[in-house]
Fold this protein.
Amino acid sequence: MKKNISINLQGIIFYIEEDGYEQLSRYLASIRIYFSNYEGHEEIVADIEYRIAEIFSARLAPGKQVISLEDVQYLIGRMGDVNDFEVLDPMDDEIPYTTTAAAGNNSRTENNTHTGPKKLYRDINHKVIAGVCAGIANYLNVDMVWVRLAFVLLILGIPFTHGATSFGVILYILLWIAMPASAILPDTTVKKLFRDTEDKKVAGVCAGIAKYFGIDVAIIRILFLALIFAGGFGLIAYIVLWVSVPEAVTLTERMQMQGDPVTLAGIEKTLKDNLNMEDSNGQESTRARVILLPIRLISQLFSWLGRALSPILAFLITLIRIGAGVFLLVLSIGLTIALLTTLFYTLGWIDEPQNISFGDFPASVYLEGFPRLGLVAGFFVGIIPLILLIFLSIGLLAKRFFIRAMMGWSMFGLWLVSVFVLVACSLTYAGNFKRSGEVITSRTIPMGNYQTLTLDAYDVNTDYDNIYVDVREADGNNVEIIQNVEAKGRTEAQAQANARMITYRVVQKDSILRFDNSYEFKPGAAFRDQNLEIKLLLPKNKKLRLTGDFVNMLPSATFDQDYSHEKIARNTWQVKGDMLTCLTCATDTLDTENISDNEDDFNLNMDVNAFGDGESVLLNESEYSGNVRNFNYSNFNHISIGGPYHVQIKQGTNYQVQVRAESNELDRMGIEQNGSELSITYEDKSINLFNDRKPILIQITAPDIKKIDLSGAIKADVNGITGNDLDVSLTGATKAAFNVRTQNLKADIAGASASRFVGTTDVFNVNAAGACSIEAGELRANRVDIDASGMTVAKVYASAELHAEASGASQIKYKGNPGNTRVNANGASKVERQ
Amino acid sequence: MKVENTQVQMRKGILEFCILEIISRGEVYASDMLEELTAAKMIVVEGTLYPLLTRLKNAALLEYNWVESSSGPPRKYYKLTEAGTVFLEQLRETWHELVASTEHIILNKKS
């Protein structure tokens, strides 16, 4: 018993056996393809089907109701298959084909190929760029695809060869020049891989591969999808194949694309034919059945797999599409709402400006003064891409895309215009930060009655953190609060006006002073980088208690050590200099915290000869700015400088303070005199992306200089100091050279400073800690008292007496012949005579 | 060069002429045409004939009628149009001229 299938040819029903059906459908398919480029091909095929119906009708009889395989083979023999059509009626120029078909035909029927030994030509007929790859493939009798793939790999660059990219391109160009072109290369009979653009989903890569191997296209697609998800290799492979595999355009190429079907039915037939597996009845022998069983099983499996997986595949793709669409839609709508809200609120249509804050300041303050036009432009810059995203997501969901070219381009144009407007407005707005100005107010609070003052903080409940509190000692009984507000503006006057736009309160209740922990903006204030620095002058004879909240407002440098906030709040303090020292901490043993060891942070390589030989630390005068500003300070003998300055200090008959810097740099410099102390600081709270400014040079002359404090990253040249005493302190990463003639020279050097001393002194007292270097070999001293700790390297000269203590990993080398030496080296330190 | 290719070229134009001749005698359908051609030793298969018929019909040289058949599917019976008749007349003339010229050249060689 056999299974039959009912078909209809042009409306006439036939019953046909299964194997006959297979062959018939292949035959019809080949005919359909063959004629597909003919004008009126449907009619031709219909006519042929009629003819087939006629022939079949003739074969049927009352006893034979079903068309068998033999009938189909008879039909094919009689009508001829596609190859026969081809031979007897080769394609005609009159018949409208694609033009490359005609060209392809010419190369075959004329058979006018090159004679002689096979030379390497460029195949113009099959070129993508110049036919180089096609020519090479023809010469080597391989499929073009492999040559193209090889070139693509060469150009993309195999991972191990760095120069391969350009090599591939150069090679191609060389071959392009060297190989002559030819349009009449012989057709090689190589099975070729094409892209099937009729059956394509994206580019026909999978369909082409499927046709080449004769496997169902769904399986190839599944394979590619799997490769894409497993690391993206599939995507790269797909794109590479898209580029290198040619499209099957002409009819011949379409036929060639089919290749030999490696179907299981084909294998079955081949086996049957070869092994003579039919017994006398024409039925399959048992042996045949056994051998063919596994093949039939696999065939069944694959066809089942293909049928089962197709719907799943389709469903998966739909799922991904809808998921992506929904996600994009939600995201873009959310962002649009946010953007709209910002716009309405900035245009003033929504209230409550103070509640929304960006970082340190409320948002309203940032936007105040920003031109309306700029805000609207900014809105458009944001909204247009979002609108596009919304359309895209709707398109994904609905499988249709709504954006027409005109609309798309006009939106793009609007977006560009908005970008320009926004940039222009931002640049104008930036002008608001050009100059800076400061406003100083001071307030005196008499505290005579109280012995102990308590400093507390009041939480203003904003997130800002823009106050700097500096503690100083004062005489008398009064607390003085000096508020120094610095702000930016278009002009200095406007900057000062902006500085006045903030309010700050300190409230006194008996012996308690409550400080706001942040300043607030007056309504209508604009963000202009306002900075409040509070100098708190506390009487040095009062005892101080600090609350934990207040401690949050103090910089850690206020304390001489790292204390926990609880410890600070528990104890009583006193102001000394510009720090607070603890009065009761000796008896406070409540916490056992470790103070971190900061010495690891210092640079390990400290070159004692950091100065070179006799060269100044400073640059040539021409390397500094030409803009000079003189200050009218006098009667000072104590110079403190902190910041990234170049400093030149000289002793002279007159007082002179001169600064060479650009005017906006001068804005950053803070200079003031307190009694006999001239102090220069540096205020720079902004980020400088381009650090190619000229350094600032400060030149100070004074007749009598007793104390010099340098901190930060100063380069200093101190020359000609004569007098009795000179007290020098260097911290941070200063680099200073001193030329002195004194009696008592005291140096406190810390951090990673480098110092050089030249001249003469009676007593040289040095305290060095950290990773400093002290080059004092040319400072002839009678008595040297040096205490070096950390990783200090020091060279000294002592003629009479030397008292040297080295600890940590320090080194002290001394010259001279001191009679009295007391040397103490601890840890990994060394003290040695040179 | 292969001789079959040239032979095919020679046959190509003549086939059209022969088909038009056969149709000019009266209404005829495709398989009858095939029989006659095969009997006259003009080797033609369905795959060649049908495209040609369709082309001629599209060029308005032929027209057809559907005729029901008792034994099988309905059949297309072709006949020449006015234009087709004129076309055939011109082809006949060309054929006679070609035969005359070719014979002349062949005979010329011998003498």
Remarks:
- Chain B has a mean pLDDT of 86.
- Chain B touches chain A at residues 1-2, 4-5, 8, 12, 30-31, 43-48, 50-55, 58, 71-76 (CB under 8 Å).
- The CA atoms of residues 60 and 81 of chain B lie 7 Å apart.
